[in-house]
Design brief:
Blueprint: E1 3-9, E2 15-21, H1 28-34, E3 56-61, H2 70-78, E4 86-88, E5 102-105
Parallel strand pairs: 1-5
Antiparallel strand pairs: 1-2, 3-4, 3-5
């Protein structure tokens, strides 16, 4: 069993240091939901299918995330509040390489 430490800044500007398991096939959106860092119904609206961008985050510190896939890139091309460092939390699967990741949850449309 292995865990990684991630810093997540919520939509009110409060930074939370969370521990995320790498052995449960979770993604960042699910971690944000499990720690209740975003109001219910404002994150993961599509269920993690890269179809709504409600789980968009801004990557502040990237310790080695996987490259963005085509579906994620296409969704972000249509989303609101997109920045150069935007990623979809549902597409960021928790892995050892995420140790030290820092993100900020983007505003909800």
């Amino acid at each position: 069993m292995s865990d990684v430490n991630i810093k997540i800044t919520d939509r009110e500007g409060v930074t939370h240091e969370v521990v995320a398991p790498t052995d449960m096939s979770m993604n960042l959106m699910e971690i944000i939901r499990s720690y209740e860092l975003a109001e219910e119904g404002t994150i993961g609206v599509c269920g993690g299918m890269a179809m709504c961008a409600s789980c968009q985050v801004y990557v502040i510190n990237d310790p080695g995330l996987e490259p963005m896939g085509d579906e994620e890139d296409a969704m972000l091309a249509e989303a609101f509040h997109v920045k150069d460092n935007s990623r979809l939390g549902c597409q960021l699967h928790i892995a050892d390489a995420m140790e030290g990741l820092e993100v900020e949850i983007a505003p909800y449309p």
